[in-house]
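Q: Predict the assembly, please.
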Amino acid sequence: MKEVNKQFFDLQSVVNETKIRLCLDCGKCTVVCPVARYDPGFNPRLIVQDALKRNSHGPVDENIWYCIGCNMCMERCNYNVKFTDFIRFMRYNALSQGTEVKCNHSGIPHATMHMMANRDIKQHRLKWIPADIMVKEQCQTAFFVGCAPYFDVIFNDLNVKTVEGTKGTLRLLNHADIPFTLLHNERCCGRDLLLLGDTEEFLALAQANLDEFSAKGIKEIITNCPECYYTLKVGYPRFLKNWNIVVRHATELLTPLTENGQLVLGKLSRKVTYHDPCALGRYSRIFKQPRGILDSIKGLEVVEMTDNREKALCCGANPWAYCGLVNKQIQKERLAQAKATGADILVTGCPKCQIHLTCAQKNFEDGDVCRIEIQDLFHLAAQSLSPQEEN
Amino acid sequence: MTQDELRIGVFVCECGLNIAGSVDCEEVRKYAEKLPGVVVSVRNKYTCADPGQEEIKKHIREYSLNRVVVASCTPRMHEPTFRACVAQSGLNPYLMEMASLREQCSWVHLHDRQAATDKAKDIVKIAVAKARLLQPFEDTKIPITDAALVIGGGVAGIQAALDLADAGHQVYLVEKQPSIGGIMAQLDKTFPTMDCSICVLGPKMMDVGRHPRIKLLSHSEVEQISGYVGNFKVKVRKKARYVDEALCNSCGRCADVCPVVVPDEFQSGFSSRKAAHIAFPQAVPSAYIIDMKNCLGNNPITCGKCVAVCEKKCIDLNMHDEMIELNVGVVIAATGMGIYDPSVLDEYGYTRFENVITTMEFERLICGGGPTEGMLVRPSDRKIPKRIGFIQCIGSRTENRGNPYCSNVCCMNTIKDTLLIHEHYSDTEMYVFYMDIRAYGKGFEDLYRRSKETGVCYIRGMPGEITEDPKTKNLKVRVENTTTSKVGEYELDMVVLSVGLQPGDDLKRITSLINISQTADGFFMEAHPKLRPVDAPTPGIFFAGSAEAPKDIKDSVTQAGAAVARSSILLSAGTVHGDAIKAVVNVEECTSCGVCAKVCPYGAIEVDVKAKGKAHVITAACAGCGACAAECRFDAITIQHFHDEQILAQVSAALAEEPAKKIITFLCNWCSYAAGDLTGVSRMQYPPNNRFIRVMCSARVSEKFIWQAFRLGAPVVLLSGCHIGDCHYINANHWTFKRADKMWKRMDKLGIRPERLQLEWISAAEGPRFAQIMRDLEEMRQKVTDKEIEQTKKVLAAEVLPQPADADEARIVT
Amino acid sequence: MNPEILVFSCNWDGWSCIESAVSSGLSYPPSVKIVRVGCLSRIHAGLILKALDLGAGGVMLLGCEQGRCHFGSNSDCVTPEYEKAQDILELLGMDKSRLTLLRLPAFEGHKFVTKVAKLIKEVKQLSTSGSPKEVGGESVSLQ
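A: Predicted assembly structure:
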């Protein structure tokens, strides 16, 4: 596997691929980097410069663990230097030198992902499916659930119900007569491990998933999770040899249907603001479709935060790697932006944004700067279909 | 003297010891004497010296020679010398052929006298083979229309038009705007001298207006250019102005009564004008124009006030566009540049924040002739800004929403602007955010220093974003000072985006009009980036100003002067001379298939495919690369002085003896042959098995030459030309590549190893590489077995070998 | 071959059980590895899962009885972590019996040895015959 993907493991190839030598030293990245804003010691430009000088030898730069991978830097970079990809490589390098991964949440997410990479595992991940959702036993289209069922257990103390977003998506797909099957033994997409530089375990997960899809004859995948979407759509084809499965985000299917009247959503008299998840927005350039879903809910007022779409502020903590005061401040800023819109609900399409922002609300008890209801996009949309279920 | 009575004289040069040192010249001379058609063979110490040349002349007279072969050095050195020499004896210069014994033999085989001598004999034999088939030609002469078209009336076009007209030539200056002046007319001051832009440009504009030999066509666009050097036919659309520009005396009463108010483009929209207006006070022609897009129309019920008030009765609201046809000898394209639109850089909020402006807008704000009469105010509240920031490289040096190149003028423009502000309001705080300051020109660094002396704060770092305080409309700029790695925030009253330059909107249209190419950055492509920087690859077309690359005023004017000098060479001479190496169509063989027209890089061949009209070569436009002849599958095109028969005779001569030991090498005249010469001059040694055949361009090499070589038992053939992108015939060598590719596939099918045909791009500077390739070829040759060669010969004897283009089609035709 | 068992033991009553087992001449298989912590409250689900991820067949949490915690925390912090780990194991389709929380009075060496042996036996069974769950996979029926 490593041989096949040499370009991802060899410094020279990565340097070329990420174009870091083209850095003009203009410092735009530092200005827009949310981490650098709260941590003056963090400077993407200097991390790269330093890494090039040291040629990947010498002590590991602690800063590499603090990047949240939001890709804001690349949004501004004159030469599209792929900083986040380079960070991924530096982390991989650090791990190969025996450095331990920085790990929050007592390492549960990573241990769980590692265990999922075990080929013999037989998961019980679908117990949450309620009776009203129609799932096909056999279908060439699979819905990729992602880790929502795990998240709800891991973060039970936050009382988040990310799986409600999944349920909402499935209900909308049912409503739009889009058939799909679910996979009993789907693995984590592996994005967090990839971002953390744990490339080998990522590849194990990716291969296990590919085998699972092939065994079931899957030709198309729908998912609601932005991170799964980006990883399956962009990551897998890069790393896996025989990948030819079409990957679609649920909004890519549903929004056109709401526009041409094939999918009619109900009514919800609320005021909401939409938070773009990095993996869906900046990474996948899907900005319009989620808003399209919200726009088709009658009575729903949608307002924008100051930083939206390409400029959207990240939820602050990407691969469960490191979460500290800096991350909390980013989250607080984002929540304050949402609050400032006057919306009742912050809507996001990503289970992780939901978790991180909910967690931040627990941290900041000072006044109600951050008090705002957080809901999943699909959960909200599905609610409009059966208002009696609301609350 | 008849053609079949061949009387060839061979002159073997010793070149002191340069040739004689490693080649037995006497043996070569004796060998030449026995070659068919040779009546005399002479050995000289220095053929190029006067006694040597006298010897040639004497022998031409005494032996009634009708062909001369000079076996000395490279034709790239002395071909003109010996052509002149034989011409003095009354022999047509095209009846002289050179054999390069020095660069291609004696100097590169210094240590094996026998091998060098054997090769020298072969070289002479090859030259004699060609000499037998040489034909006399006259150099071409094309008359030139003594008039020039200058497209674009910015400073470059104005300068070009004035200089050409002053030199005595008729000039047509076509400007698409209602007035000439271009971007320079909108600038306030110019760097590095800080003089007033319109004050220096205005007089020049007036000179254009009244020059007897300049016909100014303003508010006009070139719609078609046909023809070739010396004889261009131009169609210009003179758009309706609705005012007779000859009659109008700019009294302005039409504008006074005009009820339509629209933003004034000249003032960057900071003030307004009427539908009846004049672009700016110094406009040339000094005449009003009715902006019909906004005019209420001629209906007396709706308006018509201007018509009523005009004393000179020069307003005609029913005026139509007029088509004008011109005949010119040369074209100068001075179409200028476009300016980068920063709207897409949302982080700087150009569309959202009133107090973020561009440098062009700034020029109008600081200009005495501007909307504020030179009072620098910021748009939101018309207060004088006390803290101003400049952001450099807007839209430049980026692959992300902009152009990858440096726009050349923005650094100096900003430096100039800081000094202007300091001059007007010395207490203004100024910040310049930059990546690199490029102050490379005369007086530039001095200006930069002066700017720094006034206290302007130069901060190395590009702002990541700008936010606006909604109450004060002040701007907050966050930037990392990359020299200290600290992120700072600056509150500013106004931000000026130093926008870059880019190809003009209609540059693409112009390139298609005059059949020229664009470089990767979108600007005009020059014939040679260093040695012919103002020539288009198409003869008779020249560039001036920013259409070729971003330029400041001085460089634009300089280049205009250069374009004028280049144009004058043609216009003053009255005729254009060219060598006789041109394509000629044999109309009887021509089937009007149109392939030749398609492959010609110069558009010099016209074929009416539909009407079955025969191909016709515009001799003046033909550069003689030979791509057409090589691609014509009906042998209907001959390249003078490089006939198929001549080249085939060279191939046959080279392979007459011991073909299995020879490598046939086709070299283009400009790069590969020159590389061979360089190898010789540098005395780099390589094996003596190559036999060189010179063609003007690798695209001249027909498939049949190569098949002929293989049929005669050549183990390896090399085809070599300039690197892709460096072709001396624009891009003719693309066809070389395509042809080689086709041949490889064909060879593969026939069971001939495709490796036996090698294709190498060798530049004139790559001497060592040339030698290395020769060594590699020899290694390759040794691996080709006799059996393999015999097999190839057998296969090729049985095969009806296709001409270029589609094999099956060719067979149907034959 | 006995499966590897990792025991997280608290420093007080838990540890006393192990010591007393040793001083009473009782033995447990060498595949049982002990990690001593101050209090079971130190243990969180991540550590438990990490142990299993690194190859342990079973994990035992050994601590003081309810109400006898030396830090007054009643060792209760561990319960939600223990349950969380169990829930994750369930999602992963692994048998909950791989994980056991054992609260013992001080110096109960015998009980410790018995329980550890029981855990070994259960884990062994899982890996040889396998529990119906770990082999059969999920039985949620799809339409």
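Chains B and C do not touch (no CB pair under 8 Å). Residues 803-814 of chain B have pLDDT under 50 and may be disordered.
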